[in-house]
Design a protein that fits this description.
Layout: H1 2-30, H2 37-55, H3 59-86, E1 87-88, E2 91-92, H4 97-118, E3 133-135, E4 138-140, H5 142-164, H6 166-176, H7 178-183, H8 188-210, H9 220-235, H10 240-260, H11 269-280
Antiparallel strand pairs: 1-2, 3-4
Length: 294
């Protein structure tokens, strides 16, 4: 049973990590906290549902298309709604409270748009998995193994993109210092749109991965935002490896807490972990404490 719970915890946790990765990517590149990212996750789950259940595409194709469409939606949101608040010379500046309000407003808009399209009904993905894989006395659900494989593939692909390509180098330069990146000839606004699009595509991937094991509804985003935000803070806000580590920890702690303590209180275990980590290490596990001189 322990191994079964561990697989479930790691699978759910890596989905938290993927969504947290998008939040951290936006924060490291744009210096803003995207409070509508839970609704991006929800939107991606619904778009994947349409491509898979309604259109009839194979599940991997439906996931890729959902990521592409949601990424384009993210680019549109960044250019139309966020950029006017943060435009300054060649890049972005922090817009303070205005940016926070716009983020929450965007979450409400996306949720209501989804409600108008799909209504308040919960939907499920058509069955895509076979029977569990038996290894001795251990039963491994194919759904959770698929989540682990796909999520790890996405993380490896993102790391290769950021570390091994010229475009990824430009993205990292913009994340490090927008003014210097602009002076070096990098098109900062385009890179910012790319960062936002990739982050939203990751959120959509999380939604499509979680769809076959949970129901898809317009209200699924807010709880995911809270869990993913907790994962990002636990790992170290703005740290991409930290987001994945934080997600895995949240998923494992939540699963074992529900199994061995109380399943009716499973949503509080992530926040207990968050409080404990912040008490011990305020910057997060992989975060860097920045000293500011007056």
């Amino acid at each position: 049973m322990f191994f079964d719970f561990l697989i479930v915890g790691l699978s759910i946790g890596i989905v938290y990590g993927i969504v947290a990765l998008g939040i951290s990517l936006i924060y490291s590149g744009l210096d803003i906290v995207h409070f509508a990212h839970g609704e991006i996750f929800m939107l991606g789950a619904f778009i994947g549902l349409v491509f898979f259940n309604t259109v009839g595409f194979p599940y991997p194709v439906a996931m890729i298309l959902a990521m592409a469409v949601t990424g384009l939606v993210g680019v549109f949101i960044e250019r139309v709604f966020y950029r006017p608040l943060t435009r300054s010379g060649g890049g972005y500046t922090v817009a303070g409270m205005g940016m926070i309000i716009v983020g929450f407003g965007m979450a409400i808009i996306l949720q209501n748009v989804a409600f108008l399209i799909w209504g308040a009904t919960s939907f499920g993905y058509d069955p895509i998995y076979g029977p569990p894989i038996q290894l001795g006395g251990i039963s491994l659900p194919r759904s959770y193994l698929w989540i682990l494989v796909v999520a790890i593939t996405l993380m490896v692909a993102l790391n290769l993109f950021l570390q091994r390509t010229k475009l990824g180098l430009a993205v990292r330069a913009v994340a490090a210092n927008k003014e210097i990146a602009s002076l070096m000839g990098i098109n900062v606004p385009v890179m910012i749109s790319l960062i936002f699009g990739v982050a939203c595509a990751l959120g959509a991937a999380g939604g499509v991965l979680i769809g076959p094991i949970n129901f898809v509804s317009v209200e699924m985003g807010y709880l995911m935002l809270i869990k993913a935000f907790s994962a990002a803070v636990i790992g170290g806000f703005g740290s991409l490896p930290g987001a994945i580590l934080g997600g895995l920890l949240v998923g494992v702690v939540e699963t074992f807490g529900a199994a061995y303590i109380s399943g009716s209180h499973k949503d509080i275990y992530a926040f207990i972990l968050l409080i404990v980590v912040l008490m011990v290490r305020p910057s997060g596990i992989m975060g860097v404490l920045v000293k500011v001189k007056a």
